[in-house]
Hints:
single chain; alpha/beta; 37% helix; globular
Amino acid sequence: MSDILVLYYSRRGATAEMAQYIARGIEEVAGVQARLRSVPEVSPECLAVAATVPAQGAPYVTLEDLRECIGVAVGSPTRFGNMAAPLKYFFDSTSALWLQGGLAGKPAAVFTSTGALHGGQEATLLSMMLPLLHHGALLVGIPFTEPELNSTHSGGTPYGASHWAGNDGELPLSRDEKTLCRRLGRRLAEIAVRLQG
Length: 197
């Protein structure tokens, strides 16, 4: 069984819920399983140390998780049209993996949640693509052949899955958003399996 990494940061839980739906889509494909991982908060103190294992949620990611996976989905809430600092901080620590080409040729997808419908979903998705491109990953999006991409009135983009959570996180994932997350996970897994040959 091969693993596809679902790596995310979630502050209020919406991005974590999206990760679960992406994982479901991954596990619809024979021969692969989802490996859920998160990143710790970034401290405003100079070098405060987080616990090695989080109190709740997915375990923290390691470079080994990236080396061992055959594909990766990366998710973050939007922060001013950019990925959240904890996820960026993690990517900034992956130089050793980059030098080894650890993600080169592996398929990758991105997903995000935002408080405002026009809060920078696509810009955030693009910001997560940049380090993946530098690592040599092959980006996977959502094609317009997915009917929900044409009918959604909330999240969903060809760049990756997205969710409109509302200013206070009060909006649950819509049916279209859940479906697009699942389909993105499945598409990522199908491509990863094909690339494995």
